[in-house]
């Protein structure tokens, strides 16, 4: 009767030679059948090696994890504490890049905001998590390591949980003694702009900031310079976001802020855009008017609205005379003056479209204003401190640029800014402009702000 081949005893505790060759061993002593057949030395484990525990198969764990999507792989370690070295690296990244995202100031003034921000971060775990969240997500653009992916998810989750708790325990009225919750919401706005993925992620934070800031309009700030910066930051983000997403924003709360008598003092000179930020309330007024009307025809058919829009143009003109560079000006003064002109020209160009050509008096023709815009743009250095705040005027004027050289100037600036900032806001708006230049201009109708696909902050 033939022998059953499966009846031969096999064991995982066979000779070392079979284990190394990953062959089954029948454990026949002193030489097993496999070693005898292949003329190999049959080596058996000693008592010491036999008692040694097996090492875990780490390699298989790593390989199995690497087959998962990056988001799921990162979540496998989401509750692991980031190393102190990574925390230092993220704080260093925010120190180096944060001023570029937050201000157009230069030299020592450029880092001044950090002296207000970091003490709050050291005191408040919520603010610290918001700083680390923003830095981690931005650093992922340069380093996509698993540790950094896990940290970005972890800090975002911690910041969201902390913000919910802070909002739930936010005191009312005169009991407000801290701006840390408002600062955290402002940092979420920064995070959603610098690490942009979808405009709808920014909108809830802007509405929340409007509510929190309105509650603080008549309270004494614990840190005046921080409160001033939070006013500036809110006015920039809200006025520009309202231009494209007005119907989704809370104008009731924000109107109280933009009508606040002390706002001019906060915005006259500041951290974000210096003297140029006096344009924010006027852009807000335009955005609010546009949110109330869906078409250019409805705007022109409403006499009061039509008159108010014309008045905003005059208010913008009255803010300061046309800018001219003089030899005694500082670099910062030149930067502020040119930036204001870019905003003013973009506003007038857009308003000319909304209310109809020929209505605005003492304003050059549209082609002349576009040419002036490109000329002022050329006066900024290749890497201007204002670059991060130029998306709105560049896109607005780019849609009205018919000359190929003007289009190239706008495209090159947006491309250069994206290279520095790595924010998808700039690259997506550049793609939008290129589609418009290629296809949309034949339609003859420049889109209204609410028809822009991406926020312009």
Automatic annotation (TrEMBL):
* All copies of domain Zn(2)-C6 fungal-type, residue ranges: 14-44
Q: Sorted alphabetically, which keywords does the UniProt record give?
A: DNA-binding, Nucleus, Transcription, Transcription regulation
Show the SUPFAM superfamilies listed in the entry: Zn2/Cys6 DNA-binding domain
Give an example GO biological process.
positive regulation of transcription by RNA polymerase II
Q: Name one GO molecular function term.
A: DNA-binding transcription factor activity, RNA polymerase II-specific
Tell me where in or outside the cell this protein is found: Nucleus
Give the source lineage, highest ranks first: Eukaryota, Fungi, Dikarya, Ascomycota, Pezizomycotina
Provide one Gene Ontology cellular component: nucleus
Name it.
Answer: Zn(2)-C6 fungal-type domain-containing protein
InterPro entries the record matches: Fun_TF (IPR021858), Zn2-C6_fun-type_DNA-bd_sf (IPR036864), Zn2Cys6_DnaBD (IPR001138)
Q: Which organism is it from?
A: Aspergillus nanangensis
